[in-house]
TBC1 domain family member 9B
Amino acid sequence: MWLGPEEVLLAGALWVTERANPFFLLQRRRGHGKGGGLTGLLVGTLDVVLDSSARVAPYRILHQTQDSQVYWAVACGSSRKEITKHWEWLENNLLQTLSIFDNEEDITTFVKGKIHGIIAEENKNEQPQSEEDPGKFKEAELKMRKQFGMPEVEKLVNYYSCSYWKGRVPRQGWLYLTVNHLCFYSFLLGKEVTLVIQWVDVTQLEKNATLLFPECIKVSTRDSELYFSMFLNINETFKLMEQLANIAMRQLLDNESFLQDKSLPKPRRPLKNISALKRDLDARAKNECYRATFRLPKDECLDGHTDCTLWTPFNKMHIPGQMFVSNNYICFASRAEEACHLIIPLREVTIVEKADSSSVLPSPLSISTKSKMTFFFANLKDRDFLVQRISDFLQRTPSKKSCSIDREWKWNVADASILVTSHPLAVSPTSGLSHRPVSFCAGQVPTASQGLLKLFRRNSEELSGPKGAKEKMKEESWNIHFFEYGRGMCMYRTAKTRELVQKGIPENLRGELWLLFSGAWNEMVTHPGYYADLVEKSMGRYNLATEEIERDLHRSMPEHPAFQNELGIAALRRVLTAYAFRNPTIGYCQAMNIVTSVLLLYCNEEEAFWLLVALCERMLPDYYNTRVVGALVDQGIFEELTREYLPQLSEKMQDLGVISTISLSWFLTLFLSVMPFESAVVIVDCFFYEGIKFILQVSLAILDANMEKLLQCCDEGEAMTILGRYLDNVVNRQSVSPPIPHLHALLTSGDDPPLEIDIFELIKTSYEKFGNLKADDIEQMRFKQRLKVIQSLEDTAKKSVVRAVSGDIGFTMEELEELYVVFKAKYLMSCYWGNNRAAAARRDQSLPYLEQYRIDMEQFKELFSSLTPWACGAHTPVLAGRLFRLLDENRDSLINFKEFVTGMSGMYHGDLTEKLKVLYKLHLPPALNPEETESALEATSYFTEDVTTEVACSCLAEEKGTSPQDYRYYLRMWAKEKENKKETIKDLPKMSQEQFIELCKTLYNMFSEDPVEQELYHAIATVASLLLRIGEVGKKFSNRPTRKSEDCKANSGQDPVSEEESPTSEQSQNSAVEQQPQADHEDKASVDAQPEKTQQENQTLGDGSGEGQGSPLQLLSDDETKDDMSMSSYSMVSTGSLQCEDIADDTVLVGCEGSSAAARYGSTIDTDWSISFEQILASMLTEAALVNYFEKKVNILQKIKDQKKVERQFSSSSDYELSSASG
């Protein structure tokens, strides 16, 4: 590349001059290329340690003048080819011009101006893409690509100087973190270390310090543990590594392929040596933290944050903290935890104004809302800019009437139009709903105006007793809190709020506060009508999720009166079905019904729906999917916390294996399925305010309370009984609802009266003992556990797939596991290196493990070329394409792992017959593409007359794919699979002359570069000419009247086998010559149109000149064959002089028109000629060289090892010698 001219004082230091003229020098870095000696080793080491640009560009061109001692670097290159191109341009375009100048200063000025002009011209086109990344960073990215052979699409995120510990010796070098790989390069005194690790292979990332290693980062994969240390900023490096590994895990989990988030803010001042990707990743991490802290919707993007103070009227103080501004919200978080949190939706804002500054209140800003609240911020550093940003966002905020004041919708009930307001702040029961003339199963979209608990509350004496008084006191406490701290979304959230939540939320306020604390209220008011539309669209639609929902509806809190009738069941059905249609990746998961039924008791349908969205998509991420990954991750955190807080019990629990059993049911249903309802609902109150942190601390408190009993347990069952009995007796003595019988009450022992545990005491204990858990720490632990869980699930998937395919395949378990790793890596590579992201869409998590990873033809060709034992040079991709079509039975242009290894096994395992059978099939439809032969239609119809079991199944599958699922069809298919119906060689259709010539071409290509290629060529030439002759003889029997052929076709697809002794060759005496009539419409047409022809024209292989090596194949006309019968029956190809290049270059049969072939060769293809598999096999067996070739064993593990090495070979163009360049 051209460089802006830079001054170089010592042109000879560490460089060798290779070319020179009066004005320019071409130099090579010492130690690069061959030789170099000790000096070269030292220079190479210096370049790596000091990160010299000479590592990536070991060639340069200097400008010089005769009398000046100063040199100017004008170009550099990573290869000799690149630098020679620049050198030749200078010689051709500048040398003559420069010789005209008299003054050396003018020469230098002219050269510098010219180079600057070239650079400007080049940059004009590249400016939009590259302006974000600074020059130093681009250079590092170039080094990374050159060093590790990465393609252009692989983006560098950042790079760091560090040491890699190999044994006890640190290797100083550079760590490159790319989107998909961790790479390290070191070169010290001739010893080179190159590491490339995919993020998807990382099983553990740890930052620790040991006696052996200083503070270091440990990267674990399934095979190795790597240690990196001596970072300038180890925390920044580790955080970035975590982010990249996390993105890779997300990709494995749900196909969220990494894309640059275009909506992320760009910094006002470009950061030196920071890539656009690094900036975006940092912004992404801040966004996630911001959304989690304030429970905001998933599409909210943080614009910026600034230090400030907030005036809190409830305690008359200015609280220091940070203000966060995003597209739709202004938020505040105090520095002291729990002092104050505030969320102001911009849809609620009416006025933003700058107040007068004073020494007491510098740079104040007041924000007023529709609910008549005003918030004062002060000590803002850049107030004017902040006000401008808020104004911009306010202008973009929809100016519709606030949904929080008067949201309303209609539905038709018994031809009457009823209007119901649904505002959680002021819920009024509707008389129309109390009487039930409503048909909830009709096509309308009805919605209850309130929670089901209010509709189904039985007359309880508790409301007038001491419990009722306690409930009213709670309500009064909350009303006072609302008066002091505000009500609704803009409420000041403080330690006082948490105290009130811990004491239990009153039943009348539960729905409202759940919506506020979870953030579901924000999503509901910004998506009016969304739920009603979803319900309408999902009505009457059926799929697997709706079937599961129907099955579980009556199991959802059957003990509660609200779900003992159609009203409650119908509401639950609509909410769950609507969510399944909103999020098909989750659809429906067990435990969602239990949680949703509780939400419906306190909220109307739409509110319950949005609470479910907040729960599944934000508060409990990945919990409710097919593999419950989120719950398994939090289970891992629970085990880790047990080890930290209850070490004595942890060991016992591990031995009993209890934690994994209990935690899933506790976490997935938020204790609703294991505790009495009145108690569990208090847990849900605290969960919506605190998040998963609260569930973990309560779980620890439960284990702590039962520690003594658990330590004495002998088995898992006993431990489960103890914990079950304890949870059954957690009571809520303040509940005003009548007690609901709990299903787990059967566990209670009848010997002693059970000891009751007050839920509020349990919550208080959990805060006292384990309240120091931090949400940030839990997120950090979630990342660590996610790596472990997803990798263990991937290992399980691998074992399941390998077990599923191992019975029918000849490979060992070890070979299958290695092949699975290669197959999966190829799929993942297409996700992040492919031109489009369609590959990611191909993976459906709901499918069985075997079907989840599937590759297309291009990926298969790459794998085939590196793993096949049948290398065919330039012909390999053609053969790979044919095998792919043969394996792709359902014609969806994708193959799964089983199909892939079936194809590979056909080439590696079995005897000569099995391998030849695979090769034979590759030259018949469907493997042979219609475009690859002239008589495509003829060949296809010929093939379908002799339908093999394989093709019949694929056609059936294709046909079935368009109709609704028929389970009986699948049962029949499975039954067929169970039958070990071995395909015999009799089932294989005959091969036409064209297809046979294609087979010969393939064999000639396969044998090139083989150690005994001449023997093989001689053998195949002998066999080919013999088979051509057999085909000629067989032609006499196939030339029958059309009527007979139709009769044969009606009777059976396979003709009787006739035998005939060949009068000229002993080799054909035992060959069975099967007859296959041609009954194609095109044949009939051609016979009718040309009755004067006695026979179809023939095509034979012949030696054109009869002398010289490598004589090409020629197609001879009828006239030539009439004169020389021996030429047609036994071709002169058998001299063994035929070369594979001749077939490839001269016999152009693939995809050409019949007329053009006739024009070139003076003949058309002989359509009556055919040959059977048995005849080919019998002929092949006569040649020892061919038998040995197909019988020899090839080690696929070695091929896989080589494939992994080759996969990332240096992509830079190889240097070519000076002599050839200058010549």
Notes: The two ends are 23 Å apart (CA to CA). Residues 308 and 379 are 5 Å apart (CA to CA). The longest helix spans residues 775-806.
